[in-house]
Write a structure and sequence with these properties.
This protein has a four-stranded antiparallel beta sheet, with no helix packed on it. A four-stranded antiparallel beta sheet has the order 19-20-23-24, with no helix packed on it. The N and C termini lie far apart (111 Å). Helices cover 6% and strands 41% of the residues. A hairpin with a 6-residue loop joins strand 23 and strand 24. By secondary structure, the chain is mostly beta strands.
């Protein structure tokens, strides 16, 4: 994280307010015809790896404007422009599963299940020179099975995955090679696949996540910190993850590391945890259900890709409504879920939606197996920047009540993907007559009303619009209201032939008109 980002996050925390998020409005982005498994960034370029054969322009339906890209593509991180860098990764399962750039950005390490990188023969891993966009011939470690995670430091490239051998030597699910590809002495014995790696060299730790139960002969469920030189266990994290909960992603900022889990079975832990780099203690743990596939911290916000469906016990969270929210933002300091709700669908494959995240040039890139973003067609890839361009949806006005001197209008609050507080403007006959501000979310849309003082018997047309402070909706269809007339008051006359109510009541007591009691007595006499 850059110094400015840390400063902005620190100022927000000191002021007791939530950090600001990116906009939730998707930028125009190229699409893939398959699944994006991994994203990486270097020197203002975003690299996209996965299982796909073509890409197509923003907005193009499947089959139109296709450009060949075999499991790998490169784009300008800021503009989204397609770049010519396009080595094909083919053979075996034809899939790029992990990528990471060297700290100086000169090399992109690519792993997965393939045996060719461009014209070079490889074994599940390759090094791409970012300046020339070609495979480095001297880098050719032979990895025996799929690579699912890569981390790079100035002195080592760490590989994690399903394999058991590298260059013919035993390396159970994790290994380290030099920047030129030579196998290093680093060695750890892990019993199940590794799915996430993150190095913190200044703290002497390599964080490793995956499906495992045992590391170096000791129990270590899903997460462990290893010595980055020897592979010896530095820390394990007992109690952080139950059995059948696997760490799928690890990322860090300058003081914390963040992990996301996928639970294999109903009710198994799926959320995110923040820990301190200095000592490995837990900072916070959320309780959202819905497997987490990727996390990335940026400007004091932890962005995550998941299919969350119940965050009711996490501050700022939402109840289980039978739907899925595939992208989330949380405060890195206290786990609070922030008001940032762009969304995708589940899409292809396992239908989990987004699977990979990276930030470059202030833009969040998202890759996965989705085919829709914010309810619009968009496959495999999308991105989000700082510019808020989406207006809230306009509500529908209805007449709640009307009397001779006032009209009460009613509507259900609308919501916005990246602004919780919205202002509603009510117009009578084209003139602004009222404003109301209300907070709302997609799961909590309160009922709102406005009472307008008007003249009896008048007729008016009402409309409403809503703004997030930057973008304003169109005005609603007009609602025509006719105000009731005042009731006519009766005025008593002075004519003696028109007796008052009191006189009428006296007349009722005349002896010639006997009371019920008199009638009853007379009947008894007869």
């Amino acid at each position: 994280m850059c110094t400015t980002a840390l400063l902005d996050a620190s100022l927000a925390a000191a002021a007791g307010r939530d950090p600001g998020t990116l906009a939730a409005d998707a930028l125009a982005t190229w699409q893939t015809d398959g699944i994006v498994w991994s994203l990486a960034a270097a020197n203002g370029v975003v690299y996209v790896g996965g299982t796909f054969e073509t890409i197509r322009p923003p907005g193009a339906p499947r089959g139109q404007g296709q450009v060949a890209r075999h499991n790998f593509a490169a784009f300008d991180a800021g503009t989204g422009k397609l770049l010519p860098c396009a080595p094909s990764f083919t053979g075996l399962n034809h899939s790029v599963r992990a990528m990471k750039a060297s700290p100086d950005g000169r090399v992109l390490y690519v792993g997965g299940s393939f045996n060719r990188a461009g014209s070079a023969r490889v074994a599940n891993v390759a090094a791409i020179d970012t300046a020339g966009c070609s495979a480095r011939k001297e880098f050719h470690p032979a990895v025996s099975a799929t690579i699912r995670a890569i981390e790079a430091t100035s002195g080592a490239v760490y590989l994690g995955g399903d394999f058991g051998r590298v260059d013919g030597q035993v390396r159970n699910r994790i290994a380290a090679v030099s920047p030129k590809g030579a196998l290093l002495p680093f060695k750890a014995d892990i019993d199940q696949p590794v799915r996430a790696l993150s190095a913190a060299p200044s703290h002497g730790r390599l964080f490793v996540g995956g499906d495992f139960e045992s590391v170096n002969g000791q129990q270590a469920r899903s997460l462990v910190a290893l010595n980055p030189t020897s592979g010896a266990t530095v820390l394990s994290y007992p109690g952080w993850f139950p059995s059948q909960s696997s760490v799928k992603t690890i990322a860090r900022d300058d003081s914390r590391f963040f992990v996301g889990a996928e639970g294999h079975g109903p009710g198994i832990y799926d959320g995110r945890i923040a820990g301190r780099l200095a000592n490995g203690t837990m900072v916070w743990k959320d309780t959202c259900f819905g497997a987490t596939q990727a996390v990335v911290p940026f400007n004091g916000v932890l962005y995550s890709a998941s299919h969350a469906h119940n965050c009711n016990e996490t501050p700022g969270g939402f109840p289980d409504r039978g739907d899925r929210q595939h992208l989330l933002a949380q405060s890195v300091t206290d786990r609070r879920i922030l008001h940032w709700f762009p969304d995708t669908n589940g899409g292809l494959g396992e239908e989990v939606g987004p699977r990979a995240l990276v930030v470059s040039k202030g833009v969040l890139w998202v890759g996965g197996e989705f085919t829709q973003v914010n309810e619009q067609p968009q496959q495999g890839l999308t991105r989000f920047g700082s510019r808020d361009t989406g207006a809230p949806k306009v509500p529908t006005l209805s007449l709640s009540a009307a009397t001779a001197d006032k009209v009460t209008l009613a509507w259900r609050a609308t919501w916005d993907r990246d602004d919780a507080s919205l202002t509603y403007r009510i117009y009578r006959d084209g003139k602004l007559v009222a404003r109301q501000t209300k907070r709302s979310t997609y799961w909590d849309l309160p009922k709102m009303t406005y009472t307008d003082p008007v003249s009896a018997g008048s007729r008016h047309s009402y409309r409403i619009e809503v703004t997030d402070g930057t973008n304003t909706s169109a005005k609603s269809p007009s609602l025509s209201v006719t105000v009731p007339q005042k009731p006519v008051e009766r005025v008593a006359g002075n004519d003696a032939t028109a007796p008052s109510n009191a006189q009428e009541r006296v007349a009722d007591n005349d002896a010639t008109a006997p009371s019920n009691a008199q009638e009853q007595f007379a009947g008894e006499e007869r």
